[in-house]
Design brief:
With about 240 residues, the protein is α+β, with helices and mostly antiparallel strands. The chain contains 7 helices and 11 strands. The mean pLDDT is about 95.
Length: about 240
């Protein structure tokens, strides 16, 4: 199993409010988390750091190699709910941070099984010999329009409101968290990223750059490409490959 991650402020922002974490927590067990904060006066960076610390600490403290799938599911979900409480409570302590929040996508890879949770529009992808597939669903206004048949997939890609999210960690007292569980048989990779990457890098390019290649170099190439195309947002990616 291999892991890699990186984050970049981009070309237009003064602060990087994205946070990323990748590490091994047991033999053939890796965790990856990407959070993209939102909120003025550096509050987005505070929210994303609080969330990623909360998710990682909860997983590291409670994961056991002999856990059953349902217990891992509960662990992943409760870790994001815990992060939501931490961020929400912090936003209420300081009026300047009121309303801050963050996206969160996290994956726990245990041998050939992937346990993933998601809130917001940071994405999780699965890459294997068949190609690339987005696992998570974007919690955005544009995705809602697309799923209700009001706009096409192509219109969604360039819609002026494509970055307006409908759900985030820490904005409300509680949050609904998406959960996904996958099991692979052959070689695969899980890629998590913020919208600063996917706004520029199409799925096919991500696949050709990442799958079967050096992960550190692949992430650098994706970030460089996003910057070359404008880099209007912070850019972050994390990969776990088996």
């Amino acid at each position: 199993m291999f892991i890699a991650s990186d984050t970049d402020v981009g070309k237009k922002r003064n602060e990087n409010q994205d946070k990323v974490y990748t590490d091994f927590i047991a033999d053939n067990v890796a965790v990856a988390v990407v959070c993209d904060g939102m909120g003025g006066a550096s509050s987005g960076g505070v929210a994303s750091q609080l969330a990623i610390d909360a998710v990682v600490s909860r997983i590291r403290e409670n994961f056991r190699p002999d856990m059953k799938a349902n217990s891992i599911r509960n662990l992943m979900l409760t870790s994001v709910h815990y992060a939501n409480t931490i961020v929400y409570d912090k936003s209420k302590e300081d009026i300047d941070k009121n309303g801050m929040g963050t996206t969160c996508v996290a994956a726990l890879v245990v041998n050939k099984k992937v346990y993933m949770v998601s809130v917001g529009d940071s994405r999780g992808y699965l890459l294997n010999s068949d190609g690339i597939k987005q696992i998570t669903t974007d919690h955005t206004y544009v995705e809602m329009l697309y799923r209700s048949g009001q706009i096409t997939k192509e219109e969604a890609k360039n819609h002026h409101m494509r970055n307006v999210i409908t759900k985030a960690v820490g904005v409300e007292p509680d949050v609904e968290v998406d959960y996904f569980e996958l099991e692979e048989s052959g070689n695969f990779a899980v890629l998590l990223c913020s919208d600063g990457l996917t706004n520029y890098c199409r799925d096919e390019m991500i696949y050709k750059t990442v799958f079967g290649n050096n992960l550190d170099e692949a992430i650098k190439q994706l970030i460089n490409y996003a910057n070359e195309c404008g880099g209007k947002d912070n850019i972050t990616a994390a990969v776990v490959a088996n």
